[in-house]
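Annotated sample (chain length 180).
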Amino acid sequence: MTEVPSTFILLRGFYVPDEFWPAFEYTGEARYVFIYWTPVGDEAMFGDGRCSGDANWRAYLMLIEFPPNMQAICEHMPRWALGASDADPTHCLVIDRQEHDTYLALWAEGSKFVNEQWPPQPRIELTPEELNRVNEAFLAAIEQMNAEAVTIDWQALMEEDAQRLQVLKFALELRSAKRG
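Output written by the structure step:
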């Protein structure tokens, strides 16, 4: 892995506790993850070079709006540069989960950087028959997921989400108490 590009701005004092990741609902293994807000669906988003998607917006806002974090961002640019309900992001946060550093980067540069943390994957070529089997397996998996969705205990999921957010809030408040 190459070094973090010199164009990235290290956000001194920006704190990402380990408790953020389960609350944010990121379960990947990547060292570098970039996060931002998109007006499409008004969602918090992540990317790690292997997968990307939306995440828990409440955890994102809790992290971004934590006063020392907001101050670290706003020393360099307005908060909406990370995206807003009515604005595409121009920038993103690139988080080094190993060193616990957070960088501010242009969105395209942040995306490129996290994509390059992985070795190149070989190109896979499938015959029409193999592609058919993959498609059938995919459709069967979707059907299974739809069947299981009926049996999900949504109340329990919401309670687990609320608990993860409380743990994140406590970790951020504990940091404030130690600093103050």
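Annotation: DSSP finds six helices and six strands in the chain.
Annotation: The chain has a mean pLDDT of 92.
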